[in-house]
Design brief:
14 helices; 2 domains; mainly alpha
């Protein structure tokens, strides 16, 4: 049964979802941040209410977004919305059930990646193309569209010209590592929405773990053997398909170790009481500088043997 407070909570969640979706279209470029934040209202509402109310919010919001998408001519965003809404519902369900951080990360990535791969393969079969050529063609079309928009807006003109000249090679490279990029981006999406959701819920809902406990998170130990084998395949195997599998699996493993490295960094940030501003700068550098990201991934990898946080654990 819905009481007065339930109706208010439901309305606020629905309005937040609609507002985030509207801001995505209203603000160019930056609007994608609001789109990627869509799981949060679903997450928070599901964690604070039972499953039936969470499903009701999911169905109601989805029907409204589908209707508005067709009315205003952007039906292509419906699939994106459904994926993000499902992720929010899953994380909220997982938090209520007391799932571990690792279980939520792997479950969230699985939820996002596997259906996308199935859609990709079915689309390739329907069009009579190989999955690789379809992917490369779509990436090339998106690069050309991005170049066109940048030129019309007068942005990044020199970089746009270089990208236009090398569009074919860039699209082939991205297509080669696209599966691992998709997994890595899905992991980032799950982590950011999970941590923001926990921050919003920490005062209103008892959780089985806290933000502080994530500073001691470690990737599953067997993952290092997966990395060793996949790296060996990518370096020494000349067969194109196996080489591509090795490269992509290696990148996925390193994405998880980068997450572990970031957890180590924030563990010491907390111990040394580093200002919030410095932590934000660290995150910006982490996302913008690939060499720094590689160093953080190595930090996470070597933590398997050196256990950098051991002394901090003992003190706590």
């Amino acid at each position: 049964m819905f009481g007065k407070n339930d109706i208010i909570d439901f309305s606020v969640a629905l309005a937040t979802i609609g507002g985030l979706f509207f801001l995505y279209f209203l603000i160019p470029f930056v609007g994608v941040v609001f789109l990627l934040s869509l799981p949060i209202p679903f997450l928070v509402y599901r964690a604070k209410n039972n499953a039936s109310k969470g499903v009701l919010l999911f169905v109601t919001a989805s029907l409204i977004i589908i209707l508005l998408s067709y009315l205003f001519g952007f039906p292509g965003e419906i699939i994106t919305f459904l994926f993000l809404a499902s992720l929010g519902f899953f994380i909220g369900e997982a938090l209520e059930r007391g799932f571990s951080v690792t279980r939520i990360l792997f479950g969230g990535v699985f939820l996002l990646v596997v259906p996308l791969f199935i859609i990709w393969l079915l689309t390739a079969v329907q069009l009579g193309e190989s999955p690789g050529s379809l992917l490369e063609r779509v990436i090339l079309a998106n690069i050309q569209e991005a170049v066109r928009i940048y030129k019309e807006q007068g942005l990044f003109l020199e970089a746009s010209e270089k990208l236009s000249d090398n569009a074919q090679a860039v699209s082939a490279l991205i297509a080669h590592i696209f599966p691992s990029l998709l997994v890595a981006l899905s992991l980032f999406l799950v982590v950011t929405n999970l941590l923001l959701g926990v921050l919003l819920l920490r005062k209103s809902l008892p959780l089985s773990w806290s933000i502080e406990s994530t500073y001691f998170w470690r990737a599953p130990e067997p993952l290092v053997w997966v990395l060793i084998v996949s790296a060996g395949v990518s370096f020494f195997c000349s067969y194109p398909l196996l080489n591509a599998v090795g490269v992509n699996v290696s990148i996925v493993c390193l994405a998880f170790y980068a997450l572990q490295g970031a957890a180590i960094a924030f563990c010491f940030f907390r111990k040394w009481r580093v200002p919030i501003f410095i932590r934000v700068v660290f995150l910006f550098i982490l996302f913008l500088q690939q060499y720094f990201l590689a160093l953080i991934a190595l930090l996470g990898l070597f933590d398997l043997w050196f256990d950098f946080r051991k002394r901090v654990k003992q003190q706590e």
